[in-house]
Amino acid sequence: xxxxxxxxxxxxxxxxxxxxxxxxxxxxxxxxxxxxxxxxxxxxxxxxxxxxxxxxxxxxxxxxxxxxxxxxxxxxxxxxxxxxxxxxxxxxxxxxxxxxxxxxxxxxxxxxxxx
Length: 115
Fold this sequence. Notes:
It is a single chain. Helices cover 17% and strands 40% of the residues. By secondary structure, it is of the alpha+beta class. It has one domain (22-106). It has a 6-stranded antiparallel beta sheet with strand order 1-2-3-4-5-6. Strand 4 and strand 5 (84-92) form a beta hairpin. The longest helix has 15 residues, at 4-18.
């Protein structure tokens, strides 16, 4: 019985971390100046935020990179119907954060209507 208790505790801790809700980041993002958060959805590993500055910011963290001491997250920011940014960001314990790949970026600075 005593040998199984540490394993049980480890499984329970893993379960709580794996299913941690994204709302846990609310105190951190609420402190960002001039950012009004409307809704936070999902988990810490895969979730989204809606705001008055953008329609949706979503992320998907790859847990395999945690074994290497890094965090790798796919991030998509949808500004409006026509403008979005899709990128992969990597941060490590001993390295500076960097953007690994930016793809399908469609950001239109000016739109014209009519002629």
